[in-house]
Specification:
Distance between the termini of chain A: 29 Å
Order of helices and strands of chain A: HHHHHHHHHHHH
Distance between the termini of chain B: 27 Å
Oligomer: heterotrimer
Radius of gyration of chain A: 23 Å
Helix content of chain B: 25-40%
Chains: A mainly alpha (269), B alpha/beta (268), C mainly alpha (253)
Largest sheet of chain B: 6 strands, mixed
Structural class of chain B: alpha/beta
Largest interface: A-C, 59 and 66 residues
Number of strands of chain B: 10
Shape of chain B: globular
Strand content of chain B: 15-25%
Chain lengths: 269, 268, 253
């Protein structure tokens, strides 16, 4: 596919247009600080935060801790997704399984997963396992619910057609059910991605010795607020990029889907 | 009941009941039907009479009381000997046209060269050369239905089950597709079981028409259709012998529809 | 097919009872250290004691007050923003990048900022909760307002309504069910944010006592509080669900 230069510059112009309120915001921030409207104790200037960020990046602080946080989030997300998809699939295929499992699933729905962090800290200490366990449980539910919905709404005629074309019962999930459920599974994945960040950071703030969450907390305690703001900006940016990348992947893999429209992602959470 | 020696499909005293809020509802009651090899049999009847249900039972997708015997063996669920085409096309939206057509071949682990040969031939047959890499969402209704038929033919089933396959298409496309189907049947000599509510379609395509009563469905009348199908559509449809049969069939279906308390039989 | 007993849902009850039984027996048999898994009976006992001496009720009241305070502020602001964004291109342009950036971000990361600005008392938590709730509410409300069927609006226009009256009498009421669903989604967000903020920063409430108990290895209290949190979530969600069914049951979805 040839990318036309006019399209690139038009796209860039659009992006700048969309980002300009942020520039405005930073300008207001700077103005509020330098005019003395806001006590610089409580709100470091954008320049100071930028300097702190540069320092963190060059010093490797960010890279080290970010890696730890992302590692925990990714492992928990991967495990939670695989188990969640499997459980959701089983629930959709077997009424008995669904009946036995639903109360447990329903119970965890109402439980704020971060409430389990102290419990996991009790069991597993303050290392990676606690964080991964918390992320795992948080990611489980949206994956189960969305996979279940996706599989259960697979049109009967698709299953029957597949069977008439020689699909065995063993092949049915991978060939038909999970593929038909892909849009729903991806929606769940996006939600789970958000949860993975929240739980990883929460665990680090409550019960950990490493990670971006811990870093933010420490800077807050030490009073080096410019570094604190810098670290927060960093994780916000990373979470945003991760979400966008997932969205991009979704669009590529769901090219075939009916509602694959261009501006779809901007409007849907 | 026509006496067919060694029928391809034999439906014996098939009954089907559904559970509902008001107790069991009988969709089919003691339905009997025999279909000979190479026959094109249509089942017509008022809405809700159970004709689609019967087709799904023959396809092996629904359980029922009674027997469905194919080639003198009782069926045990769906199978590649019975291809099915649905009104909703039922194409796999995540596969391209050629992968949809090749789906059954992939399940049988057909070699890549054979697969390509069969798919290319079928794409030519349905006239969709150039559309191999498109996804179903990019196709029109008529094109989708053609892919659905090609997909079924790829596995070369001995029997074709068609559930109101052209019901979702506009009138012009419907006629084109009917001619396609007729051509394929005359070429391949497969046994075809077609469910439709369109009486003209049934008379145009089949050599036997079964009328199903209102619910609970039973085959209550049959008509043999002995027309010279080499004639072009314009001649055939306007000919008196076509219309004699058509009128008889229509009347029979209408009686059933009225018995069911419905007024909406398609008079076309 | 034999009639399944409708009165008692056997299978769900069975699995829950089984779970509790396994818990009790495993704990009693000292399969796990009592610190890690106190017997269910001990947890239940602690629960009763906490209720009796008022500590649980105090904590719960405080947490819920914070959660709801933040929820209300966040929902009100979010709905207002979403509606304004749906009507005004300028508002949409202005607010969109912040929503796009904020939605995927882990809002808990902002807690230190709120503590810096508002201290470790309730206000920082309430505002953080509001901050966390705004984003899903804005998006949900915006989508709801934008998706009100054109046919509704056209019918109203042809019946002689002006744009303003259409907004208040057609679009807004049509949005209520979806906005309510968004609100239902915001409730667990509010609870989680409150509990987590209390766990990190202290200052009383369920979360604070929970982490306090963990640091002092009082596992029965830890378990008891987790059970209470789960029940709170359950009760709230079913209450909201039945409210939705009763008053917003007219919606197609």
């Amino acid at each position: 596919m040839l990318i036309r230069p006019e399209a690139v510059s038009a796209g860039a112009a659009r992006l700048i247009g969309r980002m300009s309120p942020l520039v405005l915001f930073i300008a207001l921030w700077y103005g509020a600080c330098s005019s003395g409207l806001v006590n610089s104790e409580f709100l470091p200037t954008p320049t100071k935060v930028a300097a702190a960020l540069a320092d963190l990046v060059s010093g490797g602080e960010i890279a080290r801790n970010l890696f730890v946080t992302l590692f925990r989030a990714a492992v928990g997300l991967a495990l939670g997704s695989i188990c969640g998809i499997w459980i959701g699939l089983m629930m959709a295929r077997s009424e008995r399984f669904k009946a036995y499992v639903t109360p447990i699933v329903g119970g965890t729905y109402s439980l704020p997963k971060s409430a389990l962090i102290p419990l996991f800290a009790l069991w597993f200490g303050i290392g990676n396992v606690t964080a991964i366990a918390a992320v795992f449980l948080a990611c489980l539910l949206p994956m189960i619910v969305n996979t279940y919905h996706g599989v259960v709404t697979t049109p009967k005629v698709l299953v029957w057609s597949a069977q008439a074309l020689g699909t065995t019962d063993r092949e049915l999930p991978s060939q038909v059910l999970l593929r038909s459920a892909m849009p729903d599974i991806f929606t769940g994945l996006r939600i789970a991605l958000g949860f993975s960040f929240v739980l990883a950071i929460s665990t680090e703030m409550i019960a950990s010795t490493s990670g971006i969450g811990k870093l933010i907390f420490l800077y807050g305690e030490n009073g080096t607020y410019d570094y604190m703001f810098a670290a927060i900006a960093c994780i916000v940016a990373v979470a945003f990029v991760a979400d966008r990348v997932t969205l991009l992947g979704m669009h590529r893999l769901l090219r075939w889907h009916e509602s694959a429209a261009a501006d779809y992602e901007r409007r849907r959470p | 009941m026509l006496n067919i020696v060694r029928p391809k499909i034999e439906i014996r005293r098939v009954s089907k009941a559904y559970a509902s809020d008001h107790g069991p509802v009988l969709a089919l009651r003691d339905t009997d039907l025999a279909v000979g090899e190479g026959e094109f049999v249509s089942i017509v009847g008022p809405s809700g009479c159970g004709k689609s249900t019967l087709l799904y039972i023959v396809g092996g997708f629904l359980d029922a009381d009674g027997d469905v015997i194919i080639d003198e063996k009782a069926i045990m669920g769906p199978g590649t000997d019975r291809g099915i085409v649905f009104q909703e096309y039922a194409l796999f939206p995540w596969l391209t046209v050629e992968d949809n057509i090749g789906y059954g071949l992939d399940r049988q682990h057909v070699s890549a060269t054979d697969r390509k040969k069969i798919i290319d031939r079928l794409i030519g047959v349905i006239g969709l050369t150039g559309f191999e890499k498109r996804y179903p969402r990019e196709l029109s209704g008529g094109m989708k239905q053609r892919v659905a038929i090609a997909r079924t033919l790829a596995c070369d089933p001995a029997i074709l089950l068609l559930d109101e396959p052209f019901g979702a298409l506009d009138a012009q496309t419907r006629e084109i597709m009917q001619d396609e189907l007729l051509r394929i049947w005359l070429e391949t000599q497969k046994t075809v079981l077609l469910v439709t509510h369109d009486v003209t379609e049934a008379v145009y395509l089949s050599n036997r028409i079964c009328i199903m009563s209102a619910r609970p469905g039973q085959i209550i009348e049959q008509f043999t259709v002995d027309l010279d199908r080499t004639r072009p559509r314009e001649e055939l449809v306007l000919s008196p012998d076509f219309n004699t049969i058509r009128n008889k069939v229509w009347l029979s279906v209408r009686r059933q529809a009225l018995a069911a308390g419905q007024q909406n039989v398609d008079p076309s | 097919m034999p009639q399944k007993s409708v009165l008692i849902p056997w299978r769900p009850v069975t699995s829950v009872v089984l779970l509790l039984l396994v818990w009790e027996l495993a704990a009693r048999a000292k399969l796990t250290p009592p610190l890690f898994l106190p017997p269910f009976s001990v947890v239940a006992d602690q629960l009763c004691r906490s209720i009796a001496d008022g500590s649980l009720t105090n904590d719960l009241a405080l947490s819920l007050a914070r959660a709801f305070g933040g929820l209300l502020v966040g929902t009100a602001t979010g709905v207002a923003c979403g509606l304004v964004m749906s009507r005004s291109r300028f508002a949409e342009w202005l607010i969109d990048p912040f929503v796009a950036l904020g939605f995927p971000a882990p809002k808990i990361a902002f807690l230190p900022i709120f503590i810096l600005w508002f201290g470790i008392g309730s206000s920082s938590k309430i505002l953080l909760v509001a901050f966390a709730c705004i984003f899903p509410v804005v998006i949900g409300t915006y989508n709801a307002a934008r998706s009100v069927g054109r046919l509704f609006v056209w019918s109203a226009l042809s019946l002689g309504s002006n744009r303003r009256s259409i907004f208040f009498h057609v679009i807004l009421p049509a949005c209520y069910p979806r906005i309510f669903t968004t609100f239902r989604i915001a409730v667990p967000v509010a609870l989680i944010t409150t509990f987590t903020a209390e766990m990190v920063a202290g200052g009383g409430g369920m979360g604070a006592t929970l982490i306090y108990s963990q640091r002092f290895f009082e596992s029965p209290t830890v378990f008891a509080y987790i059970v209470v949190m789960m029940c709170v979530g359950l009760v709230l969600d079913s209450a909201l669900l039945s409210f939705q069914r009763r008053f917003l049951g007219w919606a197609e979805n």
